[in-house]
Amino acid sequence: MTRRTPSAADKELIERLATLGIRVSAAQLERWRGARLLPAHARRWLGRGRGSVSVLAEETVAVAAALGRHARPGRDLRWTVIAWYAEAGRPALPGELAVPEPPWAAVHEALVWAMSRSSAQRLMVAARAAGDGGETAQDAFYTEAERVLGHGPAGPPDPQEMRRVLEGADAGLDRGRERRLRRGAVRLAAAAGMGAGEVGGEALVDALAVLTPGIDWSDVVAADARQAEENGEFDNWIRAGSVDPLGRLEAAGAQDMGAARHAAQILAGVGGLYLMHGFGMPETPGLTRLRTELQESGFSLIVAQMVPLMINPIGVVHALSMCLAPEFAALAAWLETVLAHQSDNSEGLLRLPRAEQDGPEAFMTDTQ
Fold first, then answer.
1. Fewer CB in a 10 Å sphere around the end CB: N or C, the chain?
2. Angle, CA of 357, 358 and 360, to the nearest 5°
């Protein structure tokens, strides 16, 4: 197809983006406009029959910059939209353009499309089918679960263990941790798709203990599980089909998703501070208190998992679906209050003892 010569506004846009370190082509700009992601240029009439010229708006520069940062050769535009949406809504850093919101219709369509084709969704579909399909369908579910969950890292390293290895030359990593995490994830998926009775009380409590370390599941909860099994009421703990990530995304509106994104950003931010302890981040009293509260809450692993999820568009889809659930929204709200309390504390979250100033820049200066 013959492409038209770029307009003066497009040439200016390409030059403006180049000064930001973002390389785009006129063909990309056309493609983004065709997908209704990049606004068309306004026209300014010259008068007296001289026609009109296109005019570059600052909003168009910001949109094109967001698209250009996340576009990749061969990448479906829907992944680009998801990556763009994940960074929108944050305060602009000094010297950088504020990231505008992508069109909501494009965001919603991209999220539903991505979840519907994900391995996690296929696993949930297999689990639901296994609940009604007998032993053959159940075997198929566990085969699929092994394929989906049995390869690659099970999640970010435990920061306490990483710190121990970092500080001790002879220390070794716990090689069984990933195996326990995978087994716990399979059991929860089976319970969500086939009902808690498929897993059994002891195994389900064990899975919860692995996935939410810090909470004591051993006494009261385990006893309740055993009693529920004896009474034939254990299936009510997790009803089959109660977990529906795709359904959550399909039903969500722009406001719901914006709240979920904010929650995911909070969880990922706290998770980043939590994980950096394992890579030798200098301690402050504020960070110690934050990490302690997080571990005692029992949700440290969940918060840590949010960090890699929010880095990749594939993970963003799952992070947003999770944060549409009220439990995750409540966790993020609680962590916001913890952060606010730490910020109000005279010691500050990132203030080393005897340091005069607080904040990331002062913290980096003090630790060099």
1. N
2. 125
Maximum alpha-carbon separation in the chain: 89
φ/ψ of 44, rounded to 5, equals -115, 125
170 token code pair: 């002879």
DSSP single-letter state for residue 45: E
Q: Between the CA atoms of 303, 188, 238 and 222, what dihedral angle is there, to the nearest 10 degrees? A: -90
Task: Please name which of 335, 367, 334 lies closest in space to residue 350, comparing C-alpha atoms.
Answer: 367
Copy the structure tokens of residue 109.
């369509």
Query: Cβ contacts of residue 103 below 8 Å, gap of 6+?
Result: 36, 37
3-state secondary structure of 240: coil
Q: Is the pTM of this model over 0.90?
A: no
232 Cβ neighbours under 8 A, 6+ residues apart = none
Residue that is written with structure tokens 């995978």 in the block: 182
Tens of pLDDT, residue by residue over 228-268, are 777 777 776 666 556 788 999 999 999 999 999 999 999 99
Condensed to tens digits (0 to 9), the pLDDT of residues 93-116 reads 777 778 999 999 999 999 999 999
Please tell me whether residue 366 adopts helix, strand or coil conformation.
helix
Q: How far apart are CA 148 and CA 96, in angstroms?
A: 39
Q: Which amino acid appears at position 190 of this protein? A: A
Residues 6+ apart with CB under 8 A from 362: 350, 351, 355, 356
Distance CA 67, CA 71 (A): 6
